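Annual report, structural modelling task.

Input specification for the copper (II) ion complex:
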Amino acid sequence: MPRRRRSTSHAHRAKPAKLTTRHEAPLPSARGTAVRRPHKPRHMPANGDLARVRVRASFQYEDPSSEPQALTLYVFDDEGHAMCHCQTRGHSGQLELPRSLLGQTVTVGIAPAEPGRKPPTLAHMLDRGLTVVRVPWDDSRKGLWLGNIVIPKHWFKRSCCRVRGRVTRQVRLPNGQVVTRPLCNARIVICEVDISPRLIIKQLPNDLIRQLEIDAADLLSPRLPQPPPAPPSAVSHIPVIEHEQHRHTSHMDHGLTTGIALRTAAAAHHIIDDVTDIRAHLLAHIGILHKHWCRFAQLYQKYDVDCLTTAPIDENGRFDTDISYPCYGDRPDLYFKVEQECNGVWRTVHEPSIACNTRWDYCCGDHVEIVVTNDNAGLGPALTMCGPFAAPDPAAVGQWHLLPYTSQVFVVHTALMRTGQVLLFSGGVENQLPRESRVWDPFTGGFTGQVFADDLFCAFQVILPDGRVLVMGGSHYNGPHGQGVALSYTFDPAALTWTKHADMAFARWYPTAVTLDDGRVLVASGRAAGPVVAQMERFNPSTNSWTTLPGSANKGLDIYPSLHLMAGGKVFYTGTRWEGGSSSPRPWPAPPLTALFNPLTNTWSDVGAHVIPNRTEGMSILLPPRDSSAHHHGHGEAMPPPGTLSRVLVFGGDCGSPAERVSAEVIDLADHAPVWQRIADMHHRRVNPNAVLLADGTVLVCAGITGFKWDPDPGRVLESEIFDPQTLTWKRGAVMTEGRQYHSTSLLLPDGRVLNAGSVGGSGGGTNLLSMEVYSPPYLFRGPRPRITAWQNSVRRGEHLVVTTPDACRIRRVALVRPGAPTHHTDSEQRYLPVEFSRDGSCNLHIHIPEGPGLLPPGYYMLFILDDCDIPSIARFVEVH
Ligand SMILES: [Cu+2]
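The model returned the following structure:
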């Protein structure tokens, strides 16, 4: 093996300026690419000055099965531009190098074969995590020996990515109306932006870095720190990895090695560069800059765009295609152009600025909406365009589907059981339907029926730690309407049978129950015939018996008060409730203040009033924790600790003024002084709505009415909405086929869909609805789902749970979701808790089950794993005890 004859320290210093003798100093970075001089090395010398050089290496493939692969070798000049390149065969390649380089150190980059691709710059190669080595060229006959080079397996991966969306144009009709129409006779050009903001910042010359800092000052808070006085540091825009120390580099260690190279270069040249810290600070805040990238017009010229494919746009303006792009372990950054055919010639009608219109980190399958603003873009043969306006994309709004069968019983009460089947019951009273419950299997669509002697109607249900469904109160099949009963039953999900238990001390029609942190169940409110019961009782699942709490726990709540078990273990009455029948006519008396109940001391403490004073028959839902990464207020400093189950959303209801029925409020009990705060309005007024925590942690809000439940036309709301608990904003969802109102119910199914069923029949007490409709959220239209192939089905709080998935590498989130058990849009069970996890080398996720009080009351949970595009797996049931 040829050895270097010169001292290794020469190469160690990694001095780019020493590559040739043409310019000693300054480093190229001090001038920057903006003042690039005529670039001699790229004009190769005449043939007489070139030497044919054999380049050899020992390529060691990280993934031996990918061997051998064609590689491309690039030789770079001192400014980081490729002088020449060749493909390898086996372990060597043939290059023609200028003889003037003999005796010098040569910089060689190694990349997967990239036929037809424009040669990259050295900095570009480093940014892509490709390998760069510097070797001496001492002997024209012996050629170059690169040493042992490890070839990472991700080099040979090409990723497939589904890209789809819609292209529209706004048109002004003769009557002045502006409408949106699909663009047709067109095709879309899908390009990948092949350079990253990170790289741009690294490469940017000093004067532009300072300008960028000034432009970014209002985006970055606090302002960038002033550099410390004259530290001996410098920056080179061509960091070079020294051969002996760094045989290869990858995405993981690239930053580190670059840093080493930078420091080496600085030490060698003693150049004091006061922008080093500014540059580092900008890099540290890249996530913030990303969103504002298009403000920095001076950077546009730095973009490099590879157009990958062209896809047709159909008569609805839709395109849907697959691209294949080189995968370096990240998502593609896509840019779209639109072309239209005119007399057989394709012309570009949409080519917006790349900086402002790149979809950074595109999630494959996500809907892309492109609005063409060019007035010259035609719309087709006539102004009426090419077809009906496209229906919304399910990848954006989801899709409702009316099932081809009915629920057979009236569905006022539902509970998802640990078997994945759904218990549906009650309603013999209203419809003369059989006094039976039904168990529906969402997977097969099949039903079983169970005799239900007492047919509790307008009762309440929760799921016990052992999986049984506990039902208490309600009114009796044979009793007068509104006459409460003290009955309690459990339903066994395995035997599919009902068991009667001891009566409660109080008859309760429209009570609310909630599972406590120790697995016992608290029940509050409800009434016999007169006023609401103030006493609370507690069910012990191990003895199947009830205990009345001491008088300190008494509280006058309205019927169906919203109760949630919060982080810390207290129970939160969040202020939504039901009107008390004929005894409390509108306008409803003001509800009590929202309040916290401490199950350890059996006492209440007030929290405060809603902003909108009366949310009778609105809905309350316990929100998932704040996502710490989405919530760092743009500082980039230490992130706040991950949120916990401390936030509640209330919305809608028959508020004092109809206009306030669109309103929503959030409170966070983790705040120093928690207060209800009004957030963005919904798109629709909603009374008697349903809300479901979806598998990705967003909230589906559906059904409900704009008016009042006994109005002749209550105004059913068909369009659903999706609430994002991180941004506290609402997005339009798909339109339901069957509008539902009072006595409707919704819950999340283990496959990520949502069941919506029940509802009174509408005006005049028409026949109650027996139809069932299922919603598929947008995440079911975005691409393949990650899969759980094996899992541990029982775990103790504070311990680890192991789950096997072939998709381990792309799993970004794991969540435990407690099955819902709603009635009358009151659900104290559903909760969504993302949990920490780690991966091992064999497709396993090790999931940490938190033990904090009030987070995961004992019982069965749906475990969802979500990939890097937030697509959830089908859930597996896990018992937490
Ligand atoms: Cu009812």
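The two ends are 64 Å apart (CA to CA).
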